[in-house]
């Protein structure tokens, strides 16, 4: 490899949302509001579950882990998107681009595994209720969450190493809203078929295997729910899983089209649209789905707020 290949390209230009013109300010405001809502919503869910003893169950522990993950998942991309919307200089260093790509994919892989763990938890609770307390103990739940994070952070290492060794020879404009493997590969000035194949193999394994496991779990859950005699029992069981399934379909639907493919890109517009769905929309709707559709969590939020408010207010004699 020529010694000047990488050093000659010290930074990239993130084109982000091109040709925005006069609506750039509106886009910035909309993205900022979405980010603030995502941060506040997921932080609220995480803290309420940690503070309310009634929610110290495996299901809510996993929801808490998902909310905590979303805080970091959005932090890897959205702040830089916001900065680029305001700045004329939309550059990111070579090392910074690789780090953003690594953390975005490691947290994304962790989310795939965590959603799978949540599906397994619901499967045990609904299809194996007698065994559930002995199988899904707090220790097991904690180990599952830790394994999700560990496996997620190990998955993209080989992809990042391969990209870091590619030569980039001059053209440095990334046709995307953040650094990612497909747009980076399109800038390399050598054949990247090996990288594309490795990316496809890793992404197909992570995404398709976890998605298949989740769908099988929910297939069995639906089958078990339909056997429940009372309508109230069926409604309660379905409502418990509906929120999780909504998140799964939104998240996996977009990343399957984006990453399980043997080509660098379908179209720039489609890639940007899909990126907004899985990097902005999914973390945004998580607090809405888990709070507005979950009466127990709403009650816990009210208990926590009123308890804190009661402690803060002075007592009168």
Task: Provide structural commentary.
- The chain has helices at residues 4-7, 24-51, 58-75, 78-86, 94-127, 132-135, 138-154, 157-164, 181-187, 193-226, 231-259, 268-292, 295-312, and strands spanning 11-14, 91-93, 173-174.
- The longest helix is centred in the middle third of the chain and has 34 residues, at 94-127.
- With 317 residues, it is mainly alpha-helical.
- The protein has a three-stranded mixed β-sheet with strand order 2-1-3.
- The chain contains 13 helices and three strands; from the N terminus they run H-E-H-H-H-E-H-H-H-H-E-H-H-H-H-H.
- Helices cover 74% and strands 3% of the residues.
Question: Key terms for this structure?
Answer:
317 residues, mainly alpha, three-stranded mixed sheet, 13 helices, disordered N terminus
Query: What would you call the shape?
Result: globular
| Helix-strand string | HEHHHEHHHHEHHHHH
Residues in β-strands, percent: under 5%
The N- and C-terminal alpha carbons lie at a distance of 80 Å
How many helical elements? 13
What's the assembly state of these chains? Answer: single chain
Low-pLDDT parts are: 1-7
Q: What structural class should be given to the helix and strand makeup?
A: mainly alpha
Mean of pLDDT: 86
Summarize the biggest pleated sheet.
3 strands, mixed
Q: Which percent bin holds the helix content? A: over 70%
Radius of gyration: 22 Å
Identify the strand order in the major beta sheet.
Answer: 2-1-3
Number of DSSP-assigned strands: 3
Organism: Ursus maritimus
Family: Belongs to the G-protein coupled receptor 1 family.
Transmembrane segments: 26-48, 200-221, 242-262, 274-292
GO molecular function: G protein-coupled receptor activity; olfactory receptor activity
């Amino acid at each position: 490899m020529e010694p000047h290949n990488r050093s000659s390209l010290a930074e990239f230009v993130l084109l982000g949302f091109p040709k925005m013109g006069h609506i750039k300010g509106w886009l910035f405001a909309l993205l900022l509001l979405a980010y603030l809502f995502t941060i506040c919503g997921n932080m609220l869910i995480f803290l309420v579950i940690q503070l309310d003893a009634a929610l110290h169950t495996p299901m809510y522990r996993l929801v808490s882990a998902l909310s905590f993950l979303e805080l970091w998942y959005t932090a890897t991309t959205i702040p830089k998107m916001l900065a680029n919307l305001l700045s004329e200089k939309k550059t990111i260093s070579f090392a910074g681009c690789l780090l953003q790509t690594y953390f975005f994919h490691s947290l994304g892989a962790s989310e795939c595994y965590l959603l799978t763990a949540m599906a397994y938890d619901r499967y045990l609770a609904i299809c194996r209720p007698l065994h559930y307390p002995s199988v899904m103990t707090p220790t097991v739940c904690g180990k599952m969450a830790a394994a999700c994070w560990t496996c997620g952070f190990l998955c993209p290492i080989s992809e990042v190493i391969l990209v870091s060794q590619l030569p980039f020879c001059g053209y440095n404009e990334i046709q995307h809203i953040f650094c990612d493997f497909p747009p980076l590969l399109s800038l390399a000035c050598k054949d990247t078929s090996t990288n594309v194949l490795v990316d496809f193999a890793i992404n197909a394994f992570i995404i398709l295997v976890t998605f298949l496991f989740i769908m099988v779990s929910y297939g069995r859950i639906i089958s078990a729910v339909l056997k429940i005699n009372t309508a109230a029992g069926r409604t309660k069981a379905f409502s418990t899983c509906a929120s999780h399934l909504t998140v799964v379909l939104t998240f996996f639907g977009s990343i399957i089209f984006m990453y399980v493919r043997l080509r660098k890109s379908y179209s720039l517009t489609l890639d940007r649209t899909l990126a907004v769905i899985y990097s902005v929309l999914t973390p945004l709707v998580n607090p809405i789905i888990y709070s507005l559709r979950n009466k127990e969590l709403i009650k816990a939020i009210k208990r926590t707020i009123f308890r804190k408010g009661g402690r803060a207010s002075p007592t009168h004699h």
